[in-house]
Every structure is written in structure tokens, then in C-alpha cells.
Design a protein that fits this description.
The structure is a single chain. With about 350 residues, the chain is α+β, with helices and mostly antiparallel strands. It folds into 2 domains: about 190 residues, no CATH class; about 60 residues. Helix content is about 30%, strand content about 25%. The protein is built from 7 helices and 13 strands.
Amino acid sequence: MKKGDLEGMNFESGRGLLKSIRGDIGNNAEVQDVPSDEELELINGYTRKKFSKEDLYVFTVVLCDNDVDRDYQRFPVETLTSLEKMFVGKSGIFDHNPTAHNQTARIFSCSTKSVDGVVTATGDQYFRLEARAYIPKGRQFDDVIYAIESGIKKEVSVGCSVAFEKCSVCGEEMGKCGHKKGNIYNGKLCFGELIDPIDAYEWSFVAVPAQREAGVIKSYCQEDGRSVSMEEILKSISACEGLNLDSAQTEKLWDYIEKLKKSAADGAVYRNELKAAVRRYSAVIQPDISEKTVEKIMSGLSVRELSELKNSYEKKASGILGKCRPQLSSSKNTKEKNSNKEFKI
């Protein structure tokens, strides 16, 4: 399937394709950069004068998520939920440089959302903190809007503080337990979980964010002005009532498919490595069980369950192998060479 094959396609029987949560959207959706009536009321709560819809540019941005980032840290879902209210009203700046000149956008709503069919590096359901932000049109802001629309200004990073960074391996405070981020201990990746947020300072457009998926994303609207996210586009496919995709929706759906394909390929490689290890260790600790039976047992296990089984088998196998002596190894009880002790009286 090629990218162009999606455009204009009518999904009359899409129940088995990219299943997501149920729902429906209109066929005449367009990119949503104009606030709805409800959003306009929220925005005017931050302005000194009343702005009209035509005076404003709005967009959706992913601030952070619960996946492990490039710095080997992550926000648990509870932390994301706590950050929702903290980021409402916060300014968007550039490169975390807190100057008034850098103030460019402002968040007027924020919520934590799950993305069906996507999991994190640790195998958990993927959640992200999505914000809606506005920029006034005209003057120096038109250049920023153009940079966002063209995809040049896209990646973002957040500035916030938390009370505690917990080690994913032992649960102790990171930096005091001896575990190092990025290392693997007994099959478990070490990273810091950011717990109990204290404050949210700002969010910034940056070139390379720590969070891989943080940045401006596309959203769509129906004729009534209601904002429609990528998740809702997938809902209509699962609803089996037919959907005509326009070029913007096709672009977003294709990007989503490509990410799913990459995640599936990575997951398949990791699963096969776990299964190969289980087979090896099973042959040592339970040689009376056939390989066919082992395969049947593994086929019904998740990646996390396979990892637990592999770690358990590895410990048992090391105990058995540690007692075995290679055929050509020397024995501690071997008699001294050329000692002639047996001939001495």
C-alpha cells in the first residue's frame, strides 16, 4: 500500500483496519486553525480586549507523554494529569529563554489523552498531554504562524519541576540507589519516573526535544467548528459507516500507519529474541518438555510475560550450569603431576 492509495478511499468495511475507539466524524473536515465558540470564550479570558475568531490562530500541541524519553525519564499518567491545570495559561517561548520578547503563544486548555493501539517502550498504554494554544494574527506573529504551518516550528519541550524522581528498577530516589539511567538490570531498563509535579513554568519551541513525540500536531474540524483529532479520524474507520479522506487527513493517517509499522517491527524483533532465550533455558531446566509444547506456551504470552519467564528461566539455568564442569576442564582434586606419591613409603 502506498501513501497515495489512501486519499479518496472509502472505508466501507474498515472494522479490521486500525481499530480504535468508536465514534464518527463528518466527511468535510478541514484543518482546524480557527477557535470554536467555546474556545474563543476561553481565549478572551486571557486578553484585555475581545478578539474575534478571525483575529486568532489556534493549534494543538503535545507537551509531553508517558514514554521513556531521550534523557531516560518519563512522566507517569498521574503526573500528566496533575500537569493539566498547571500548564493552562502558560506562555510558549523559544529555546527555554524566559524573556518577554520570546513570548509567542499561550495555552488556553489542556488535557491528558490516550492513543489507542500505541504502547510505550515499557509496554504500557500510551498517554500524552495535549494542549490548545493561541497566537494573535498580524504584526510579528505572522512569521511564527507561517513557521508552524510549514512544519518548521514543530518540536516543543516543557519547563517544570517535580518533587521526586523515582528509579524504575528499585523505586528509590534516582541518583541515590546506584542504578544508572539507560542501563538494563535483570532485563529491566533503568529510567527516572517524574513524580509529584510542583510547578509548570513554560513550554518552548526547540530543535531537538527530549520527548520524541512532543510538538505541534494536526487537528481537524467539522462544519460546525468542532475540533476533530487524529483519534476521531480512526474512530470513523472502525465505525464501518464509510469515510472519505481529504489530503490533510490522508497525510496524518499515513504518518500514523508508518509509526505503527515501525513499532510492530521493533516489537517482533524483541519478542523473537525473548522466545529464543526461553527455548535455550527451557532445554536446560526442563529437558523432558518438548520444544513444541514450549512454543505453544509462549504463543499465548505477552511481551512482558515472556520477559518475566525468560528472567526466571535464566536464573534457574545459571544455577544448573554453574554446577556442571566442562569435559576438558581441570579438576581441583587431580593428583599432582609427576609427584610419585603413590610409590613413596
